[in-house]
Input
Amino acid sequence: MSTAQDTSADIAGTRPAAGKSILTVPLVASLATLGLLIVVPLFLKNFVVFQLTMIVIYAIAILSLNILTGASGQVSLGHSAFFAVGAYATGIMMEHANVPYLLAIPIAGVICFVIGFLFGFPALRLKGVYLALATFALAVAAPPLFKLGTFEHWTGGVQGLLVTKPEPPFGLDISQDRYVYYLSLTIALIIYLLSVNLLNSRSGRALMAIRDNEIAASSMGVDLALYKTLAFGISAGFTGIAGALGAITVAYVAPDAYTFNFAIALFLGMVIGGVGWLPGSLAGAAFIVFVPNIAEGISKGLSYAVFGVFIFAVIFLLPNGARQLAYYLYAQIKKLVSRF
Output
């Protein structure tokens, strides 16, 4: 296996362990986590199920950001804008055009893919902090646009837009929250598998070649413009799907929910989960959902300070995020099993 193939397998979470064992860290962790995600919500209250749904949705957005930053090396601080576009596109289609939600979700993803792909063209001239600043401008500019009176009929302006939460189909005897949770989980699993296949493909290796050395990648025949804009488009498209699911889950869309703070939260989730490691997206999403609540429970007046301490502790103890912890635990389990 070449170096590029090794790197793509590591990012996608499919690198084989030493020897011929098929039980890799990501495989074991993914199967165990998937089993818990399927079974545990059946025994939880609706509010907790709602929180788990938001974790799954944020995990999709963090995974898409990981494709852009971890795979192609392009830093984005503006994915909250794509999340917002996906949410509003879904709300408008469902409430104003009576488009079924199962159709509105992929259409929202396509819309965000096109916007992200087009945004990638001017971004080709930018690198590093300059690209981060350009995407920062996108995140800052998006919420005020949805408040404009010109679009108020469609977006609801400052007041936002109510979105009808879908009922379980086929007369299933489950709550709306549980149905939306399993819908989100199914879509998240599909996106995860697509992302793994993408990063293990020739296109994925091309993206990582661009990240490592653009000059070398270009000399090897990699079309820099195509792959960099494609990475932006795919990342934005997946984020738009996450935004669509978020709109359906919350049953409400408002511009103040997609501020720059939300973009920073997604970026933080990527770092906590491990930059360039797709399975860590779920851990990063859980961190940005639960830890702020824990911090506020410790001290309401100093909740941000406590949250900052949590972030500092994780970065100091686990500089590689959840990936480092997962590999450490797997190594310890292997040592324990080898003794028997």
